[in-house]
Specification:
The chain is an alpha+beta fold. The chain contains 2 helices and 8 strands; from the N terminus they run H-H-E-E-E-E-E-E-E-E.
Length: about 130
């Protein structure tokens, strides 16, 4: 069997290249590929957990800068920021431990504007905010 018998013909190769190009185009449109943004114009994401009693311990689960998730046990108020490099599904969950009363807010902001927020008044409640951001 010769090598030319296993390689795709010109028509098949054209279809393969078109399909790969379409996949790359779609990924860039969805923000899955680096869009050429510079550090200066990449959006800044800020997660905040506020309210309740100062020093109240809460468990926080959030989407990090590389699309994974992190879990932390922190005292209120709490915030965390990072630079968004492409489109990403952002999620922030604040779980109360049942030691205090009052309202706790989970807030996701992008470039200073609130993208999504959630609240809980339950001492054992959870506030979960999530949104797709570019």
């Amino acid at each position: 069997m010769a090598l030319r018998d296993v390689l795709p013909g010109p028509g098949e190769l054209t279809l393969i290249l078109l399909a790969v190009g379409a996949l790359f185009w779609a990924a860039q449109q969805d923000g899955l590929l680096d869009t050429g943004r510079t550090v200066e114009n990449k959006p800044t994401v800020v997660y905040s957990a506020i309210g309740g009693a100062t020093g109240e311990l809460v468990s926080i689960h959030y989407t990090n800068a590389i699309g994974g998730t992190d879990d932390v046990l922190v005292a209120l108020p709490w915030s965390h920021s990072f630079t968004l490099s492409g489109a990403e599904y952002l999620r922030l969950s604040v779980q109360r431990k049942g030691t205090h009363t009052g309202t706790v807010r989970a807030v996701i902001s992008v470039n200073g504007s609130i993208l999504q927020e959630a609240t809980t008044n339950d001492p054992h409640g959870s506030a979960m905010a999530s949104e797709y951001a570019r």
